[in-house]
């Protein structure tokens, strides 16, 4: 197994939501730089606060902490919203943001007065995507949820999804036909990429196609400016490796220049720094073992054992560092 400290790395998908340094200290220990992605999550600190936290700690810390901005949907149905949103994006970029994120609230929660859902390819958002394409600004997209969200619990592929949606039926889309279907989200995102072929787009969470690597590959083949990140979809990679390890290896070899590592860890100020660090250390260590070794592994996320991918160092360096550097201009 290649040692985890054999080169510097980037966790290119975290949420730095707490005004403390525990995650930065752990990153220094493990040789990671960090990319915090601002997100319009109701339970998160305000987007303004997220931006301030990342900028302040970027200036103070020896660990490189970059951040991506997000699109505020406040007033999205007002006539001058797009103009204000673009002005805000320009301001965030001038203040150090390396890209702009669109979150799943677009498609899953924001509704028009008539009850229809605002989808990512809606006309209200079109001026934003045109601006981002023209200016070649890295664009990050989280559309929908894992496909398991639209399946019965007994058909889901990973235990974390089974447990979560069993405990939170209000978010289990299988039970809610009034919400857009899984494919509505995927097709809306694909239409954006069709309209904007030069958009520098990162499909977060394996482009929400985590259930089928052939589907991910089809999009990467179709859209040459698309990249994907792995954040919070590691369990699905374990599932695929248990089914057909060589297919997963082939996927990483073929698309080695377009895959970005990230954990999606949330430094939640309501949780103790010790618990956050324990979970992050577990992820960094376990993920590295999966990618860099051929050891037999188990995970609480799936029922079968699986072997690590034993990817060569040159591919690991791309996934763990250089792809993020290039895509986000870090």
From TrEMBL:
Keyword Lyase attached: yes
Any one Pfam family match given in the protein's UniProt record, by short name: Amidohydro_2
InterPro entries per the UniProt record, alphabetical: ACMSD, Amidohydro-rel, Metal_Hydrolase
UniProt entry keywords in alphabetical sequence: Lyase
Cleavable signal peptide: none
Organism: Fodinibius salsisoli
SUPFAM superfamilies: Metallo-dependent hydrolases (SSF51556)
Domain of life of the native organism: Bacteria
Key word rRNA-binding present: no
Domain Amidohydrolase-related: 10-330
Protein name in the entry: Amidohydrolase family protein
